[in-house]
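Structure ticket #2291
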Amino acid sequence: MTDDRWPSLPLEEWSETRDTLHRWTQIVGKIRLALTPLLNHWWNVPLYVTATGLTTSKMPCSGGRSLDIEFDFISHALRFRVSDGSAHDLPLGPRSVADLYHEIFGVLRLLDIPCTIWTMPVEIPDETVPLDRDQNHRHYDYEYVERFWRVLSLSDSVLNLFRSRFIGKSSPVHFFWGSFDLAVTRFSGRPAPQKEGADAVTREAYSHEVSSVGFWPGDNRLALPAFYCYAAPEPPGFRGAALLPSAAYYSETLGGFYLHYDEVRGAGDPEATLLEFCQSTYAAAADHGKWDRASLER
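Resolution: structure written out below.
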């Protein structure tokens, strides 16, 4: 038996749509990066789950105004709202990445919001086509976009419940448009040793010890959706820890624990199963990493 609230999301059925949507979220995410001040661990760059999609949240823009941009995956529109009352919607549907890019920046000019972004996609292996010239990715399956958002929404609720049990430093639950995943990160409170050869982005992201858990729709490395957890730096003994539920496993290729989405969807209580995975993987990181759990948890 599967829980119908958690929809089926086989990667092969919507991979072309996923590839297009990945790049669309990078356009909007890069706008947020351009308009907002740097926060620790790049927390100024992700998007956030809303009641109907994903949002940038409020961003400062010209003239002392504020802007937010939201993907509405129920009405299938990209919504721009400005604090002076101006607004604009763009319909979402089958269209190229380049076409949407130019429409988005046309709207920003219309709203008198100067913004410039680096147009190269990030964290997409072997991609060399800039976002403003990408005519190849143009698929948009309305049904699967809605399914993807529903998985994000349900996962977001569980991850926020998991986050609420921790009184140490924790990230918001946020959607990273580079890696195209939803995640929440807990911190031990200790600085992490610098990784030799790490670039500036990695150094900022992993400046402190972390345990991160989230949802990822998959790609050619793991061609199915999954929940994951990793620790950075990974403590000795972490990958050999016993986990719940029993279907969870350590992936040597991806470097973390994984629980396939269909295992959660097919459980009698998907929310409890996902929460169990979050808690047991965090415990593996915290216990093997010798975190001060008594002072970090409720």
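Closing remark: The mean pLDDT is 97.
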